[in-house]
Input
Amino acid sequence: MKKFKLMALALVIGTASLFAANGESIKEPTKEIRNQIVSLLQTPDFVVENETVVTLTFTFSSQGEIVILNVDSRDKNILNYVRENLNYKKVDNPGQRDKIYTMPLKVTAS
Output
């Protein structure tokens, strides 16, 4: 019983330290990156019923391409549009590689 308690305690401490070490910081992109992303997402080719705020989570590859990790939207048209127009597109001055960025994006009704 004593060994079981000791093993359980070691498992808890090991798991807690594993999660504590995995704290990647999420950053907001600079204005320059934001402007480039907005320019890539001009007018969608579908009708937007309601104004929606979508949260983009992305990072940059070693070639300076945007890699979309998550698009927080229930609308499949918006989801597909953002992925098609942003994923693996090059920007002039990308952010840091492998850093996770979040950006709110307002999609207005047309």
